[in-house]
Amino acid sequence: MTEVKLQVQEAAGLTRLVYARLNDLVTALDAGQRFEFMNRGYAEAGSKQSAGDMQERLLWEIIGDTALDGCHILDAGCGRGGTLAAIARKQTSASLTGIDLSPEQIDACRSRFGRLKVRWQVADAANLPQVAGSQDVILAIELLKELHTPSAFVLSAARLLKTGGCLLIADLLNEDAWKTLSRQLLEGGFRLDSCRDLSAGVLAAANVRQMQYQENGGNGDAATNEENFLRTVLSEELAAQQTALATASLRYKALRLIRDGRPVNESLPHWQLPVPTAIARVTETSAFAAPAAVGEVFPYGMPCDATRLPVFAFPFAGGGASVFRGWHQTLANDMQFCPVQLPGREGFMMESPLQSMDQWVAWVMTQIRPQLDAMGDERPFALFGHCLGGLLAYELALALTEAGRPPAALWLTATNPPHLPLSSMLINLLQIAPFDHADLAIVLKVLGGTPPDVLAAPAMMRAVQKTMQADFAVGARYQRFEKRRLPCPVHTIAGTRDKLVTPAHMRGWQTYSATPVAGMSIDAEHFFLRGSRTEVQAMLRTQAAAITGKAGNIV
After folding, report:
1. What is the pTM of this model?
2. How many angstroms separate the CA atoms of 53 and 265, rounded?
3. Which of 167, 25, 16, 30 is nearest to 106 (CA)?
């Protein structure tokens, strides 16, 4: 399997997971009707339409005067079925097929619209399964940003459409992305028939919906925790959308493209949509120039023994060094296991949690450089991280390598590689500001993996609220589009029952190592550091012995 195909497969798995979690929330709220269309909506200024009416209006604005009667129509990324249901009510002679990567979404379509003459199918838009030359119209409404490789979708659409068939694309992108997309579509066997800027109507719809959320917010006491959480998610997303549309940093456009008579361009290069400069990472290092108290940073001890391998360890989002309580003792014969306490948690609660990956890396570099300098340049050390802590360990390994002090190994557990994209829906679920402790429990429930007794403890939720919020923001904002390989070995452990980071996702770390990645799987869910500590520590002992064996005397 090529690297590109593997990345597409991994990204598809993550997208499928995200929409499974969304389906859990929608089902819990009995909110299926509100999520039928899953588009941004269209309205006239001052309109007071319902969300459903505005979303259906956007559909017909996108379709425009495209002929549908008697056509074979494919909705690539049909979501919960509203688009094809609306078309079926008006175009009874059309042959309709809806595909979606999420089995939960397709089940919802079949349940709600089972009486309509629509075929619902679980499939990937990057590899459309229909017969070549079988479709008259393909819809791609707000689909492209969910795809790891839009180029694969363009090729699939070109294969499936009849000559003269229509590809209707609508999305909210910046101008660079629209230029890239248009150029690739023209090279992929399409000619542009029309381009309509619908930004004004989409902004008007966002304004109406924001007003409705604010009006409904007055009933917050009567609403469920899930209702309040969902309202907060959507309100935050709408606010960002309103700003982007009002400033024209993003434009909502509808393209109608005609499949010309050229053969499918199989040599079309792999491409991705450009990343908006607005989400570029911010580097803030000046505030972290001074090391903190050693006892606060290393609550279970700092490296002080010249005969054992030092290992700096980082926990999952919201976790503190106590996640590794006792590890420094059980591993004492093999290494110096030194969990690092990040600001804003446990004994470090008086400090504010850090707000970006750049801040995390700058702060940790400041804390451990004195330890590394004291050890000397020849003494090896290793880094360990779980989930978000694993991404911190990777970024720290890059920074230390650039500084001429690379680690001897990077150990990662339950950590997605950086190239796997967070879908826009998952980012919306994570970027909640502010939310109360009840909402935090809902976030954790949606993401999965947190024990029920922890979710049911209000005092515990209140204690970790600020830190969890900040850590979620770090995870949502973190992006690395340059795949930089580490010179040191990378070792991974995945849980076979992990719904957040699957073993297939973990295999993607090979892209980031100059040597073969040593990966293993254990029978566990996502948060397995406590329940499976024996297996994890066994791996650490084995790899530490390999490092110290190569180094001989590690002094």
Report:
1. 0.57
2. 39
3. 16
Q: How long is the chain?
A: 555
Measuring CA to CA, which residue among 475, 478, 480, 506 is closest to residue 491?
A: 506
Q: Following CA atoms 293, 299, 302, 307 in sequence, which dihedral angle do they give, to the nearest 10 degrees?
A: 170
508: its two tokens: 């993607």
Residues 6+ apart with CB under 8 A from 270: 4, 149, 151, 152
- The values of phi and psi at residue 409, to 5°, are -165, 155
What does the pLDDT look like over 202-218, one tens digit per residue? 999 988 888 876 666 54
From the number of C-beta atoms within 10 Å of its C-beta (0-12, 13-18, 19+), residue 366 rates as: middle
Closest CA to 53 of 209, 216, 232: 209
For the chain, counts of helices (H) and of strands (E) = 18, 13
pLDDT digits (tens, 9 = 90+) for 295-348: 788 988 888 877 789 999 999 887 888 889 899 999 999 999 999 998 877 766
219: left (phi over 0), alpha (psi -120 to 50) or beta: alpha
Phi, psi of 367 (to 5 degrees): -80, -35
Cα–Cα distance for residue pair 358/349, rounded to 1 Å: 20
Q: Tens digits of per-residue pLDDT, 375-387? A: 888 889 999 999 9
CB 160 within 8 A of CB 128: yes
Give the C-alpha separation, 61 to 170, whole Å: 10
